[in-house]
Amino acid sequence: MLAMNYRGPLRVRASQKPMPKIEHPQDAIVRVTRSCICGSDLHLYNGAVPDTRVGMTFGHEFTGVVEEVGSEVTKIKVGDHVLVPFNIACGECVFCKQEMYGNCHESNPQATAVGGIFGYSHTAGGYNGGQAEYARVPYANVGPTVIPEGMDPDDAVLLTDVVPTGYQAAEMGGIQKGDTVVVFGAGPIGIMAAKCAWLFGAGRVIIIDQVDYRLEFARNYSQCEAYNFNEIGDPVLFLKKTTDWMGADVCIDAVGAEAAGNAMQTITGRKLLLQAGSATALHWAINSVKKGGIVSIVGVYGPTDNLVPIGNVVNKGITIRANQASVKRLLPRLIEHVQNGVLNPKALITHRIPLEEVSDAYRIFSAKLDNCIKPILISPSAGM
Amino acid sequence: MENTTKDYSHIKGWGIDADPKNDPTYPMKNRTNGEHLGYSWERPTLQSETVEILHSNERPDVTAVFGTSTPPSGLSGMIRRMAFKKTENDYGHWLPLILADRINVVEGIIEDLRSGHVPNIFAEKGMKAEWKYNRSGLLRQIAVTAIIGYGVVAFYRAKKKRDRGY
């Protein structure tokens, strides 16, 4: 089958790989119908996540038609069109039982700090991902969810990560009615977080980035204020001024390890890998939030350390909340929001690229070429 | 949820200020405090280990299910095996893994060549897209690289001449 094949930092190609097979009685094999490239795939693409092995297939946002199921699979059947949450979760461990599906303790042998994630290095379990014609889906009784009748597959594929992660970013902000919410990062997750902040009753939503076309998109899609940090001076000072010198009630880091805007962070975090990515957005979030405010982190960082002003967290009495999104927990509510027209995820999709051109797709997304917001890959077997 | 099988009556005031609402994990965690019982759940059927699976030494064993892509091999595999002897808390775990990743890139090129495939690195880096959507930027980058390259070569040539004394 055709699959994305990682060859090293900034090098990927589409090549033939063996078909996945059932390796556990709760496995399913799906024929992938939609697969996205996520901003967090770029951390892998840039070689920033330890234990990213050559030959691996990325892709943790995908939908597919069930082709085969293992002997213990009862919740889905051959022919079902399913969306596959990015978390691989057993549903049985104490963390899954508490709906922390991103923190499963039975899906990632290589690290205890994160549950299994499709196509996200051996640090997240060593699973091949969905940027392929076919994919193995473990714990098929837990994660995969039949796409509701009438739902556009383009909406469905964004329910595997982008929508739940953006929503949970806002949820973790503990937003109260009238709160000022600042989102750092106008990528798909940041745009969705800004959109979802309104659902929790935010009074004002501001998004900060440096890419003008993305800021323009956010202004329209998320109906929020959008500012280019290259044009506002020190973003922390700007945010203090614009909140009557108080600071924002809630700050959301929707950037993670690839942040720009601070030379020291960029050099030590992204170029020299002396820290687990550049923590510029988190730094700004901590310093922009009000005393007693909340910082919500969904941006992905590597597993080692980052330079952040932790002293200010203590002195300002900040509450930090963070996690990988628990997709399965959020799906019922989010499916409702999509079906009721409250959220329109597919509007984020700007590029549909054949899987055969995956090298170009990564380049377009990574270098923000052609006004790209969200690319999806269509495999030759997608069939729809 | 309380999990108070132990008797704390000897501790004066034990629990009098407990407040179940003081829970910043809500609503992300549907708290049951099952963790207090330890590794107690009924494990799913265990997947057979058909390839070498390294596991964190912060857990007792391999998880019930795991990925089987790209098992460790070659020099990078040896380094990965050593890395997994250290905890996730230790730089001795993560830094060797990053080193192994870089060595693995060279191994990948050798593997390609051995199988008769010459990797098209420009295509793998998506240069076609860069040429299509950012031609001037790409040309600028090439020009800058060429000028720097020429400068470095010229510097060393001049140095060589000086060292020879003519």
Q: If you had to describe this structure to a student in words, what would you say it looks like?
A:
The complex is a heterodimer of chains A (384) and B (166). Chain A is an alpha/beta fold. In chain A, 27% of the residues lie in helices and 23% in strands. Chain A has two domains: 2-161 and 326-378, Medium-chain alcohol dehydrogenases, catalytic domain (Quinone Oxidoreductase, Chain A, domain 1), CATH 3.90.180; 163-322, NAD(P)-binding Rossmann-like Domain (Rossmann fold, 3-Layer(aba) Sandwich). Chain A has helices at residues 41-45, 94-97, 153-158, 162-172, 188-199, 212-221, 235-242, 263-271, 280-288, 310-316, 327-339, 358-366, and strands at 2-8, 11-16, 28-36, 62-69, 81-84, 87-88, 116-117, 134-137, 145-146, 180-184, 204-209, 225-228, 248-253, 289-297, 319-322, 349-354, 374-378. In chain A, strand 1 (2-8) and strand 2 form a beta hairpin. In chain A, helix 4 (162-172) crosses helix 5 and helix 4 (162-172) packs across helix 11 (327-339). The mean pLDDT of chain A is 96. With 166 residues, chain B is mainly alpha-helical. Chain B is built from five helices and no strands. Chain B has helices at 74-83, 91-114, 121-124, 127-133, 135-164. In chain B, helix 1 (74-83) runs antiparallel to helix 2 and helix 4 crosses helix 5 (135-164). Chain B is elongated. Chain B starts with 73 loop residues before the first helix and ends with a helix. Chains A and B meet through strand 2, helix 2, helix 4 and helix 12 of A and helix 2, helix 3 and helix 4 of B. Chain B: Keywords: Membrane, Transmembrane, Transmembrane helix. Chain B: The chain crosses the membrane at residues 138-156. Chain A: Residues 25-144 form the Alcohol dehydrogenase-like N-terminal domain. Chain A: One of its GO terms (molecular function) is oxidoreductase activity.
